[in-house]
TrEMBL record:
Stored PANTHER family: VACUOLAR PROTEIN SORTING-ASSOCIATED PROTEIN 35 (PTHR11099:SF0), VACUOLAR SORTING PROTEIN 35 (PTHR11099)
TM annotation in the entry: none
Superkingdom classification of source: Eukaryota
Protein name as annotated: Vacuolar protein sorting-associated protein 35
GO terms for cellular component: cytosol; late endosome; retromer, cargo-selective complex
Species name: Schizaphis graminum (Green bug aphid)
Amino acid sequence: MCRGVQHPLRGLFLRHYLLQCSKNVLPDIPDNEETEHPEGTVRDSIDFILMNFAEMNKLWVRMQHQGHSREKERREKEREELKILVGTNLVRLSHLDSITLDKYRKVVLPGILEQIVSCRDAIAQEYLMECIIQVFPDEFHLYTLNVFLKSCCELQPSVNVKTIVILMINRLTIFTFHNSNASEVKLFEVLTEQIANIIQSRDLPLEDTVSLQAAMVGLALKCYPENLDYVDKSLQTISDTFAKRKIEKISHKNPVSRELMALMKLPIDNYNDLLLVMKLKHFPEIIEYFDYT
């Protein structure tokens, strides 16, 4: 019946109803090759929800192309109001207790990201990437960070990737701060490499680049307070970016100036020691870019 309904709005609500009706009967039993489970395993639930998610997302995206072009704003508003229906699939996946890190890394995340990237719709991509960050455990994000951030390079140009990446950085900053086991993952190095790839592939506005590095400085100060090199690495990235773009001075009215000022205050407020701040080799370089006239 669900396959037969092709009207986007009706199909969306019908598949959401199907998901709601099935939530108490979806098997949540770990896979075990040595034992048969006639009632199914968590893999069956994953396959069902991923299929339903893909179909609902297609219907949701199709709504954008219904009607006259003059009604584009109205359709976008309708889609914003209905996005939670599609996101419920990801919430349902996150509630399956038998999904292990390995299962998430090999099956769940690739299935979700494939659908997000292939739909080529900015509204869907931005919402669903943020939804992944919000609903799945931080531990899963930590060990699949490379895959997630690489997919950010493939999103539509109009997607606000900065917001997505900063949301992920902030989540992992809190998680790493409270979990000593997280130190086995070289979080700062992974983020530095992948953010550099994102900046290069998407040609981000200068203020977005500064915002991303501000989030990295926040991560370094909170999780690696003894490592001045991490803070200096982010400052160097900004300095190199300014030099590459032949920036000489930044007006105080410029959005870049506001973001840069917020970044520069982070080590000052955190260390509360000017001598320690001045040990950051690239700190004076960036100060020189401010135009005080």
